[in-house]
């Protein structure tokens, strides 16, 4: 069974440019998460979807970040315009409904460098 | 929401057991205890979880204190491939949200 797939794996852009990350979760997983991980820190939750609905986006910087999950499957996270401080690894994860009795599956991440 | 406390780093010798501690003194009766680990340049991966009883799987064992205020992840024989950051997490919001702390960096010496 395929795991969570993310692309691109690496992206280098100049500040003020836009960037987008794509995530394909494990088939049948209703819940999808985007995390951001800065160097030397644990992942920080940006947004959580249950099917098509964003149920927790309290940590998403809405002035420049946006996300969508069309048809409750794939998801895209966009940053426009990017700033130097956005350099980080962006992780996508998916799960069946209740994580506390199961597990969260992560992709390998998309490493963003903003110059 | 209950929080966890872990040591910043630990070191182990290869082929020896490793005990990674986690304190969660404000845990509630329905909070599960989850452990994830993150190998270099990879996303986190699930290791084990439990509620009250000790748990074993092919990767590790989880020992939960009787009062549930602490737990210990046990790697029975550490290998160089076990060098990673280990996160102890109590899922929030009825179990749908994992909030990661800084975790414990485990170094394994050959």
Structure description:
The complex is a heterodimer of chains A (115) and B (110). The mean pLDDT of chain A is 93. Chain A is globular. In chain A, the strands form two sheets. In chain A, strands 2, 4, 5, 6, 9, 10 and 11 form a seven-stranded mixed beta sheet that branches. Chain A has a four-stranded antiparallel beta sheet with strand order 1-3-8-7, with no helix packed on it. Chain A has strands at 5-7, 10-13, 19-24, 31-37, 44-50, 53-56, 65-68, 75-79, 88-95, 105-106, 110-114. In chain A, 0% of the residues lie in helices and 48% in strands. By secondary structure, chain A is mainly beta. In chain A, strand 4 and strand 5 form a beta hairpin. In chain B, 0% of the residues lie in helices and 43% in strands. Chain B is built from no helices and nine strands. Chain B has strands at residues 9-13, 18-23, 33-38, 45-50, 55-56, 61-64, 70-75, 84-89, 104-109. In chain B, the strands form two sheets. Chain B has a five-stranded mixed beta sheet with strand order 1-9-8-3-4, with no helix packed on it. In chain B, strands 2-7-6-5 form a four-stranded antiparallel beta sheet, with no helix packed on it. Chain B starts with 8 loop residues before the first strand and ends with a strand. The chains are: A mainly beta (115), B mainly beta (110). The A-B interface holds A 4, 31, 33, 35, 40-45, 48, 50, 55-56, 91, 93, 97-101, 103-109 and B 31-32, 34, 36, 41-46, 49, 85, 87, 91, 93-103.
């Amino acid at each position: 069974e395929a795991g969570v797939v993310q692309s691109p794996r690496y992206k280098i852009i100049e500040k003020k440019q836009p960037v987008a990350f794509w995530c394909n979760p494990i088939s049948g997983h209703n819940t999808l998460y985007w995390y951001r991980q800065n160097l030397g820190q644990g992942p920080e939750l940006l947004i959580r979807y249950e099917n098509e609905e964003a149920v927790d986006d309290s940590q998403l910087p809405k002035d420049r970040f946006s996300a969508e999950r069309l048809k409750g499957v794939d998801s895209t996270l966009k940053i426009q315009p990017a700033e130097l401080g956005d350099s980080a690894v962006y992780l996508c994860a998916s799960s069946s409904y209740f994580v506390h009795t199961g597990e969260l599956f992560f992709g390998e991440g998309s490493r963003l460098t903003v110059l | 929401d209950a929080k966890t406390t872990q040591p910043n780093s630990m070191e182990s010798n290869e082929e020896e057991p490793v005990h990674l501690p986690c304190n969660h003194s404000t845990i509630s009766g329905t909070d599960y205890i989850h452990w994830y680990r993150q190998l270099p340049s990879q996303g986190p991966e699930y290791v084990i979880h439990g509620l009250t009883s000790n748990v074993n799987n092919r990767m590790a064992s989880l020992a939960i204190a009787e009062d549930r205020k602490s737990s210990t992840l046990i790697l029975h024989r550490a290998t160089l491939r076990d060098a990673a950051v280990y996160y102890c997490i109590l899922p929030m919001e009825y179990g749908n949200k994992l909030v990661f702390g800084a975790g414990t960096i485990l170094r394994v010496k050959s």
